[in-house]
């Protein structure tokens, strides 16, 4: 290590330091404020998202609503897979289009 002084403390020593005000974090206060609906103060180094920002940001998972696609597991020959992958980004959509074209030209029976 280059000039870093590594120290270790027991849990009792860490609690005692927090009681003396030596801790830079007060997780109990943060939890109490969160339960009371109090937003954290703005920190320029690590800003937290406000409620207004959270309302604007929506994290959606999976396919968009109304999608008519179904995820499946499919085994194909390595050469076929590599050929589609070699066409670049969007190869899954091109593979789907090729299968759709095959379905149009072949009658189900």
Using the CA coordinates, give the radius of gyration.
28 Å
Give the N-to-C terminal Cα separation: 72 Å
Contiguous low-pLDDT stretches (5 residues minimum) are none
Question: What is the structural class?
Answer: mainly alpha
Anisotropy-based shape? elongated
Main beta sheet: none
Query: How many helix segments?
Result: 5
Number of strands: 0
DSSP helix fraction: 40-55%
Mean pLDDT: 78
How much strand? under 5%
- Series of H and E elements: HHHHH
Descriptive account of the structure:
By secondary structure, this protein is mainly alpha-helical. The protein has a domain at 75-109. It is built from five helices and no strands.
Give a quick rundown of the structure:
The chain has helices at residues 11-19, 27-36, 51-56, 78-85, 91-105. With 109 residues, it is an all-alpha fold.
Helices, strands, pairings?
Blueprint (H helix, E strand, L loop, with lengths): L10 H9 L7 H10 L14 H6 L21 H8 L5 H15 L4
Core attributes:
0% strand; elongated; mainly alpha; 109 residues
């Amino acid at each position: 290590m280059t000039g870093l002084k590594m120290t270790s403390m027991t849990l009792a020593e860490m609690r005692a330091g927090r009681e003396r005000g030596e801790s830079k974090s007060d997780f109990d206060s943060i939890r109490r404020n969160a339960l009371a609906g109090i937003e954290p103060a703005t920190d320029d180094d690590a800003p937290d998202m406000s409620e207004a920002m959270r309302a604007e940001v929506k994290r959606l998972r999976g396919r968009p609503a109304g999608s008519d696609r179904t995820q499946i597991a499919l085994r194909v020959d390595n050469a076929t897979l590599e050929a589609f992958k070699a066409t670049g980004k969007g190869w899954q959509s091109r593979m789907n289009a090729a299968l759709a074209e095959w379905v149009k030209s072949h009658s189900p029976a």
